[in-house]
Amino acid sequence: MRQWLSLALLIGVFGCHGAFAQQADSEQPDTEIKVVNAPQDQAIAARLGEITAAINGLEQVDISVSAGVVTLQGEIASAQLRNELTTIASRLEGVVHVQNQLQEPLAVRSRLAPAAEKFREMLATTVQMLPLLLLAVLAVVLFSLLGSWLSRRNALLRRIGLSELATNLGMRFVRLIVTSIGILIALELLDATALVSAMLGVAGVIGIALGFAFRNIVENYLAGVLLSTRNPFAIGDFIQVDEMTGKVIRLTSRDTVLMTLDGNHLRIPNSQIITSPMTNFTRNPLRRFEFNVGVSVELDLVRVRELAISTLSNMPGILTEPRPRVLVLELGDSAVTVRVMAWIDQRQTDFLKARSEAIRLVKTAFDQAGIEMPEPIYRLHMVDMAAQNSSYTPDNSTDAPEATSAAAAISAPEVAVVDVSADTAIEQQLNDELKQSAEENLLPAADKKAVGKPAS
Questions:
Q1: Distant-in-sequence, close-in-space partners of 170: CB < 8 Å, separation ≥ 6
Q2: The whole model's pTM is what?
């Protein structure tokens, strides 16, 4: 019995000892750092010394290795080399830790030494590339001269019919393209074509920025090119843009200069002229004026029409073909509105003078013929006084027979001779302005038969 108890006790002791041993093994790390054929400290120092000797700026580094710990001492040119050397030393086999005690020199001479070394290297490289550099400069100069020569050969664009401003713009593009080709050839000789992409990117960004900054200037310039190409007006033409009127003095690359009828200079941006409705009163020498007249509702409109037409037909400056016309425009409560129209030749007759004289003559003829041009009539109804005023008769009922008899006696009056010739005051000021001003003018010279000068 005692033997069995002893055997059980021994088994329990050995089992507990195995359990504790297994638990101790499980608490140890899964992997162990093993050193197999690790190099000696002298080998690490030698290898690191060979590396520092091959790198510029690391010749003055002192290296010591003890138990796998590398200690670096001495002076080094820059912090970048200091960090790089630490990285290299930590990568060597057998190195446990790196103590970097390197210091950067604070003396001015030591600081300038690397820069001087780089400058010498750049100078040596420049001397070696000097022939290619001369060829690159020669290519740029030759292509620039070629572009300048081609930019002066604008006869072909002139034959196509382009304006001076459009021709100059086209020649500038030709010069820019030819010069750019020379620059590309120079970059190819210098093996610097990678700069082209960078230059194009920078040029694109700069172009976008300048486009937003000078948007109005670019719009006016392009509008000036279109205006000089299309030629919608010439020097001396009387035009209207929106509510602005005047005679054209000049067209520049930015704006159009007009002289108003009161002698002032008016500058309109070219972009506004392109995008706004424009009326050219001079392009067609014939021009029609018109005005409205109100006559009594009791009159015979046919006789009124005949009197107005005969009056204008006898007026100097009015064309017989197309002949004057009178149209009934509107029928009102107290008057009938008629529109009187007549044509003139602006080369011989002034528009404003002719219209003013026509209004005067028509009024005189109507007055002499007894044609009434009534004012508006207002009727007041008094309800509480209707009985007392039952016998009241309006004045216009008594005037109707007189007006009718006057209309029956309509006859054309004698027309006095009035000056309606073309007014040349603005034209004289315009010509003086063209002679005195040295500002660019993209419009051709004025025609000898310009408006305001008598036709030969």
A1: 154, 157, 162
A2: 0.52
